[in-house]
Protein 1
Amino acid sequence: MPMEPDVFVWGALLGGCQTHRNVQLGERVAQHLINLEPLNHAFYMNLCDIYAKAGRYNDMRRIRASMKEQRIKKEVPGCSMIEVNGIVHEFSTIGSPDVVMDELVFVLTTLSNEMKILQVTLWREIRKNLIEIKEDQ
């Protein structure tokens, strides 16, 4: 790299560690980021997520306890977006309009029911194919 990596490059690397569940590298990268910006909650939370995905819940609790002890907390509310019929709906931890939430619950319930029906159909098809394979042998 022609220049020294900044906090954004290191943060991207930490995100990659989280995605690929690389705990060892994630720990080193998170520690480097925490040394650069000790009050940035995002680095602690990413490390917690890495630990959680690896089943290392004691380490996750240790990081959260450290955050609490240092009075580091997430200042910005979490936010998610979903596109339905070309319209982007935004949801945050501070709440969303009830009408939008009602629509979302309806859509998710409908999708869930359709997936259950497809699952039953898929299993029937798999059983049928397995029986045919067994009969051919």
Protein 2
Amino acid sequence: MRTVKNAVTLLAILYFANAASQVFIFELPEMIVKMNTTYLSKNHSTRLRCQIFDNVANLSFREVYWFKDSLSVSELPTKKGGAELKVDGNDLLILRGSHHTEGEYQCATIIEDIPLTENTTINTRLISAPVRLRKARITRFETFRSQTVRVRQGQVARMPCLGMPDVVPGPPDVWMEKEGHEGVPLGMTSNLRFVSTPNGLQIAIAQPQDAGKYFCV
């Protein structure tokens, strides 16, 4: 299962009133969401599981509350995916991927008896970082007007790949080719002057023979 860890560190601050006031700061446990897949599928269910990250103190929790787009799953209307979500113990089961079930998911719970010092424990409510899920998809390149890139000889030419397709799971494998040299994936050959980037192509030390039309594949 894939793990999504909360990027926010939660702290507990205790104040002890005595002759010399002292403040102690303790790091609280973090909730994480584990998934059996990184995207939603129309034909297969997706299981989300709420867990305590790095649970060295062997803490436990009894009841988990799930949220989608900041709304409780138990109160979610059908038009927002409520009919396709099922709570299974401490897990959340997304029965099928659709545009209704796309969104951000979080779990929350109350953890009791968290040890801070030898004689001090606390109870606290924790919530995980949001996990964004989208259904599997692949779209076409969007249509854009041709872009003209002007560069002096010897400089670096940067050519963007516009209208990138929306691909889940991604990112897609995209490269550029030059008109008249179709089938040669620039940036993936032994010619080190061509560097493929996630957004297009860079040509180091541009030469006159580099002039021409380039397109994304």
